[in-house]
Write a structure and sequence with these properties.
Number of helices: 2
Oligomer: single chain
Order of helices and strands: EEHEEEEEEHEE
Shape: elongated
Structural class: mainly beta
CATH class: Mainly Beta
Mean pLDDT: 90
CATH topology: Jelly Rolls
Radius of gyration: 24 Å
CATH superfamily: Galactose-binding domain-like
Number of strands: 10
Number of domains: 1
Strand content: 35-45%
């Protein structure tokens, strides 16, 4: 079991009510936040994720994680819907709501571990490389506040591909070279 983390690499559907370059702000955990005013809830932004770089045999599961916080005044709760999409922006019907308050910034909230894309078909590398996520604030208890998202990632749990060991038939009495160049500059080679 190995884990590779992918983070947003593009904002495929921006919305002016979400501040900044959303994918850049969500891919860097720290003090950079993308913000939406409470009066503007309901507007969607969609981000895509970077491709996997590991040598993958199969994918066990994926799970998203997010950090966020609401602005002043204290005690405000915002609910944000996170919906996994394919590369054509069609939903996998795996939407989840996460709640944020003025105390949740240091808390990484985990989505549900997903072992299949449709309830029966395992994730493929192509599926994961095409992942996008729709982000929509669906409610906030005080419209004068705002929702601030700090970080979004997807952890991909996978089985590493095994590199086959190259063998040769030693009964053929041949010299086998699969790749490369051999240079003989000195010495004697005796083949019996």
């Amino acid at each position: 079991m190995a884990i590779e983390t992918i983070v947003p690499d593009a904002t495929t559907t921006p919305h002016p009510t979400w501040s900044g370059t959303v994918h850049t702000l969500l891919s860097d955990q720290g003090s950079n936040l993308t913000t939406q005013a409470g009066a503007n809830i309901g507007n969607v932004v969609i981000v895509s994720f970077g491709n996997l770089t590991s040598d993958i045999a199969s994918i066990n599961s994926i799970r998203f994680y997010v950090n966020g916080i609401t602005g002043a005044p204290r005690g405000v709760t915002a609910v944000v819907a996170f919906d996994l999409l394919n590369s054509s922006d069609s939903s996998y019907s795996l939407s989840e709501n996460k709640s944020f308050t003025d105390t949740t910034l240091g808390t990484e909230q985990a989505g549900t571990e997903r072992t299949t894309s449709d309830g029966s078909t395992a994730w493929t590398e192509s599926d994961v490389n095409g992942l996008r996520m729709s982000i929509k604030c669906t409610s906030i208890t005080n419209a004068s506040s705002d929702i601030n998202l700090d970080f979004l990632k997807i952890d991909v749990d996978y089985v590493e591909a095994v590199t086959p060991i190259i063998t040769y038939d030693n009964t053929l009495n041949n010299i086998t070279m699969n790749l490369g160049t051999t240079i003989l500059s000195e010495g004697t080679i005796i083949l019996d």
